[in-house]
Design goal:
Helices cover about 60% and strands about 0% of the residues. With about 90 residues, it is mainly α. It has one domain. Helix 1 packs antiparallel against helix 3. The longest helix is centred in the C-terminal third of the chain and has 31 residues.
Length: about 90
Amino acid sequence: MKKFVLIGLIAALVVGFLLSPYASSLPDGLEKVAIKYGFISKEHSLINAPFPDYTVKFVKDEKLATGFAGLIGTVTVFLLVTGIFKLLARKDR
């Protein structure tokens, strides 16, 4: 099982790093509606995004910065999900 998870993590890291720079830069559905109906300018966030526009500030190359953001996001989600599953497994015992 650990080998399966490790292979999945490696595959996700490769995809996150290599393919994320080629994701569409067009607005998503919610952003498109906000632009269409003119309330995009009223947008405000409750917290600052750690990687706004899916880039890391310490990397100058835009595609490389997006790739690193994909790596960091993948690792973050993996660690969160792993922690949640470990907590749930502990409660079952």
